[in-house]
Each structure stands twice: as C-alpha cells, then as structure tokens.
Amino acid sequence: MLKVRDIMTTDVVTVTPHTTLRDAIELFAKRHVSGAPVIDGVDVVGVVSTSDVLSFEASNPGVLTERDRVEWTDLEEETPETDDIDPGDEPTAEFFTEQWDDAGSDVSERMSALASPEWDLLEEHEVEEIMTRKLLAVPPDAAVEEAARLMKKSGVHRVFVTEDRRIVGVVSAIDIAHAVAEHLLDRKIYVFNREGNFGTA
Fold first, then answer.
1. pLDDT of 120-175, one tens digit each?
2. Rounded to whole angstroms, what are the CA distances from 50 to 106, 132, 148?
3. Could you tell me the pTM of the whole model?
C-alpha cells in the first residue's frame, strides 16, 4: 500500500501571520504552489491559499492600480480672480481624502511621483486576516487513498503531513495524479495456477 510519505513534498513553503498578501501571492507564483501553512514561531496556526487572496481582492473592489493621465489646463482659458474666492468656501483636506477609494495609503508616498503605481490593497493587509484556521493533516504513514478521500470530502487541493504536531510535508492533488499516472497505486494480487507457476491477476 502506497503511503503518504512516499509521494509527499518535504520542501514546504510557509508564511507567517504577518506576511502581506502581496508577498504571499508573489511567493506562491515564484514557487509554483497554490497555498501554504501559516507558521507563528514553531506553531502552525492556519493555512492560506491563492483562492483566499482572490476572494479577498474580489470582495474589495474599486482600488485603482495605476494613476490616470494628468490633464493640463490651457493657460489661455479664463480663470477666476483670486478676489472672488472666499477662503471659507474651500474644501478641507479631509474632503479630498474621503473621495479616494484608497484613503488608507500614505499620502506622501502617493504624491512622490505622478507616474508611480497607486497604493496596492494587498500590501495593506496581512495573511492572518484571511487565513483558514483549520489545518487538514494526515500522518506520514497514512495511505495515499486516505489523503485523497480527505481532499475530496473537504474540497481542497492539498493536505499537510504532520508528525509530533510539526509539518514534515505536503501532499497535493497533483502528487496523487502523478502517482496514478505512474501506476503506483495499482494493486497486484499474486496467485499460483494449477501448475504451480507464479503470476499476477
């Protein structure tokens, strides 16, 4: 029987609760993974996936990713005389910040260069805000079929392999697909025929 330890990946990508969502998603892209356990010190406190990040970003629309082009006013156009402007009618700075979807960003950073990217929502939020606090895990000696059943039942693409409450590996749906493609899960039943020859059925 094929065990989880036989197909698991031992080089497990991890993040911390305070990793920004931007850093997490860039790490996932760089390492070609779709999720990672969240480690606080030596404790596993949850798991975060690309689906979690995408769901978070989709539920927070409206943040611009780049600044609009600057439109210049023709100097020959009529402009109001300064004598006609009542200082009491001018809006306060608070009025303008209320108009920005991304008012939480640092204003000096926003204004440092006209061509710079707008504030990034993913930079302002951390993994602990969106992570799942329940970790699906199996021991190294669990059968691969058991890991597959757990993934199917829970609707996830990976389970972590733990030993003494430490993560020692991860098994993904891709790992199981590779095992199936390489016939590692095929069961062979050995029998003897009437002539006593050894064979497989």
1. 788 989 999 999 998 889 999 999 999 999 999 999 888 999 998 889 999 999 99
2. 27, 12, 20
3. 0.61
Rounded to a whole number of angstroms, the distance between the first and last alpha carbons of the chain is 17
Residue 32, token pair as written in the block = 């070609």
Nearest by Cα to 167 from 23, 15, 31, 2: 15
141-157 burial code (b ≥16 CB/10 A, e <16): ebebebbbebbeeeebe
pLDDT at 8 over 80: yes
What residues contact residue 103 under an 8 Å CB cut-off, 6+ apart?
97
Task: Report CA-CA distances (Å) from 71 to 76, 101, 113, 142.
Answer: 15, 20, 15, 64
CB neighbour list of residue 177: distance below 8 Å, 6 or more residues apart: none
Handedness of CA 47, 53, 58, 62 (dihedral sign): positive
Distance CA 106, CA 103 (A): 8
